Amino acid sequence: MLSLYRFSLFAVLCIAVPATNLCAQQPGEFLQNAINELSQIKNCEYVLNGKDSAPFDTTNFVYSYVEKFQGYRNLEDSVVGYTYKRFLNDTTLVTQVYDGKFVADFNWSKKEVILKDVIIKPEERFVLHAAFYLQVQTLLEYFLYPGRGHQQILWQNSDEGEVDIEKEVHRYKVTADNDSILQIDLQFNSHRIEVQGNLIVVQGRKGYANSTYTVWFDKKSLLPYKLYRKQEHHASIVEIVKSQIGKSNMNPIDALAEIPQNFSIKNERISKPTINIGDEAPELGLRKLDGREFPLQGVSEKVILIDFTSISCGPCHLSLSRLKKIQNEFVDKGFSVISIEVYRNDKDAISKYLKKNSIEYPYLLPDINLLEQYGVQGVPFFVLLDENRIVRSVFTGFSEKNMESIRNKVEELVSD
What is the model's pLDDT at position 361? Predict the structure, then answer.
């Protein structure tokens, strides 16, 4: 389960820094000056180029995109930190608007907008977007002064305390330093962090690899223009190619005013209730990689664990050994895991993932309607069904405690 807002302080160490470097005399002085400059940005407009790696192949960048962003700092928004508009490539076609009350997603081919009444909670962060400059500011503040400033810290997919980050040493090294550019690598040991707006998501438990971020700065302006992020399962690069920033407190964005008159509107809430214990499980109606249908009513096993997962999800990958162990322990007693991909629809990548990890239980392709029926907000997400296909347990996130609870509940149900 999620444990919110744990603040802590730990050491900063400067290593492998040339003697002529800014960091050699005053560790972190340049970073602090950059934080000061970033904190003064009240509005920005930029175009960036982005690349994402293939799942679990951090050297193979297979996805690329261009994005235009226009945003205004919102100090009252403790999670997202900005109101904003995002555009299709470098055009005037708006793809998403967030004004603090609503988020509107635009589909220009269908002339349709999905309007969501926002309930901002830290665990809903991935629904919305992180402004580049605020993302770097939050990253630097966490590196130098964790728990201070505007940050919020969210523990996810772990039991708080599994990794004592107070005793961990965060390291940086300067890998390029000349008259115009400073490139700094930031390494976070023994736990993984993700940055979303004002939010630092700490995924800390034994077995996690380090997180590494590299930031490129323009030394004249003290502003970052490029960010590389590497986790054990995924890597990404974003680079600003055009940018304008301001220091005024304007906040003119209105999601409703951005909707064209000829667009139809669908209303939703970002926060949906999850499926409840005692509910009858919705039919799956999904397909396997070979295209064959896979109805829930056709599953002969007495007890089923539905595993909403993704090949691009680190915590999901960590859960595999435990899932296979539970599967092997109870398969002869009428139990099966059924995994459902949530984020990817790349059959070739999924096939390679299944082969690499020796997954033999069913793995099904995604369907947005089914995710909504089961109330899936993130992955991994586990739903345990009995022989009558009634929901008996629901588990959110990966931790050893969750996996042990799943194992014990499966043992109970197959023994009934």
Answer: 93
What is the per-residue DSSP string for 158-195?
A: S-TTSS-GGG-EEEEEEEEE-SSEEEEEEEE-SSEEEE
CATH architecture of the domain formed by 286-415: 3-Layer(aba) Sandwich (3.40)
pTM reported for the whole predicted model: 0.71
Length of the chain: 416
Residues sharing a CB contact under 8 Å with residue 338, sequence separation 6 or more, in sequence order: 284, 294, 299, 304, 305, 306, 307, 361, 362, 364
Tens of pLDDT, residues 326-357 = 999 999 999 999 999 988 888 888 998 899 88
pLDDT in tens, 192-250: 788 888 877 776 555 556 789 999 999 889 999 999 999 888 899 999 999 999 987 77
Does 286-415 match 3-269 at the fold level? no
Residue 121 has pLDDT above 60, yes or no: no
- Residue 25 CA to residue 32 CA, distance in Å, equals 14
- Virtual CA dihedral for 367, 157, 318, 283, nearest 10 degrees? -30
Q: Answer for the pair 343, 368: CB distance below 8 angstroms, yes or no.
A: no
Find the distance separating the first CA and the last CA of the chain, reported in whole Å: 27
SS3 of residue 258 by DSSP: helix
Q: What angle do CA 360, 365, 370 make, to 5 degrees?
A: 120
Per DSSP, the residues of 285-325 read -EEBTTS-EE-GGG---SEEEEEEE-TT-HHHHHHHHHHHH
Contact call for residues 87 and 73 (beta carbons, < 8 A) = no
Q: If we measure between CA atoms, which residue out of 94, 68, 95, 71 comes closest to residue 83?
A: 71
Strands 335-341 and 303-309: parallel
Write the CB contacts of 328 (distance below 8 Å, at least 6 apart in sequence): none
Decide which of 2.50.20.10, 1.25.40.20, 3.60.140.10, 1.10.10.10 is the CATH code for 3-269: 2.50.20.10
Q: Which residues pair with 294 in a beta bridge?
A: 286
220: tokens are: 């004249």
Instruction: Identify the burial level of 202 via C-beta atoms within 10 angstroms of its C-beta, where 0-12 means exposed, 13-18 middle and 19 or more buried.
Output: buried
Name the DSSP letter for residue 337: E
Domain ranges of the chain: 3-269, 286-415
In this structure, the strands spanning 286-287 and 303-309 are: unpaired
